[in-house]
Design goal:
By secondary structure, this protein is an alpha/beta fold. It is 38% helix and 17% strand. Strands 1, 2, 3, 4, 5, 6 and 7 form a seven-stranded mixed sheet that branches. The protein contains five helices and seven strands. The chain has a single domain, classed as Flavodoxin domain (Rossmann fold, 3-Layer(aba) Sandwich), CATH 3.40.50.360. The chain binds flavin mononucleotide. The site of flavin mononucleotide has 20 residues, from helix 1, strand 3 and strand 5.
Length: 208
Amino acid sequence: MKVVAINGSPRVNGNTAAAFSVMKSVFDSHGIEIEIINVGANVIRGCIGCESCVGKGKCVFNNDIVNAAIDKMRAADGIILGSPVYFSGIAGTMKSFLDRAFFVATREREFRGKVGAAIVSARRSGGSAALDCLNHYIVYSEMTLVGSSYWPIIHGWDAGEAVKDTEGMDTVKMLAENMAWVLMQRDAMKDNLPYPNMEKRRKLNFIR
Ligand SMILES: Cc1cc2nc3c(=O)[nH]c(=O)nc-3n(C[C@H](O)[C@H](O)[C@H](O)COP(=O)(O)O)c2cc1C
C-alpha cells in the first residue's frame, strides 16, 4: 500500500515536514510506503476554470508538477494534505495546486474510495479554518477522511520548532495510526465489499 503526502510549505524541512516525518515512522512500522511531494516552493499558477481537463484527465498547463502529481495520487491508496497556515488559510501555492489537481481528478471522481487525512501547522491561530479548507478537498472527492485524538494542528514558528509541540505531534502520530488502520481495513475488504455503485451526479446550478 502506498500513501502520497502533499507538503504545501515552501520549507522542505519545516514544521509540516516534521509532521510528515512522524507519520512516516508510523507507516514504516506497518509496511506502508509514503512518498512526499513538496509543492510549496514551486511556481504553480491557479486554476482558470477552462474545463480543458474534462475528458482528458490532465490540466491544460503542463509546465509544472501538477499533472505528474495527479498521476501519483491516482496510483496511491491514501492521500495526506499538509500546509502551513497563512493568514488563517492554507498557503497560496498549495491552494493553486489543490484547485487544479482536484478539479482534474474529481471530473471523473478518480479519488473516490481512497483514504485521506490533513494536517496544518500554525504559529498560533487560524488552524481550524485552514484544516477545514484541506478537508474540503478530501470529502468532496468521496475519500474517507480520517480523524485523530484532537484536530491535527501543530504549532511552531521556526522550521522544525513544532517538534516541541508534544500534544500536536501525538495527535499527528495518532492520525497516522488511524489512517494505517483504515488503509489495512480497506485492503482486507477489497475483494469482499466493493465500493458503492457510482450514482451519476445530477448538477443543479443555482440559477433561478
Ligand atoms: C505569509 C505567512 C502567513 C502566516 N500566517 C499565519 C497565521 O495566520 N496564523 C498563524 O498561526 N501562523 C501564521 N504563519 C506562521 C506559519 O503558519 C508557521 O510558521 C508554520 O509553522 C510554518 O509551517 P512550515 O514550517 O511547514 O512552513 C504565517 C507565516 C507566513 C510566512
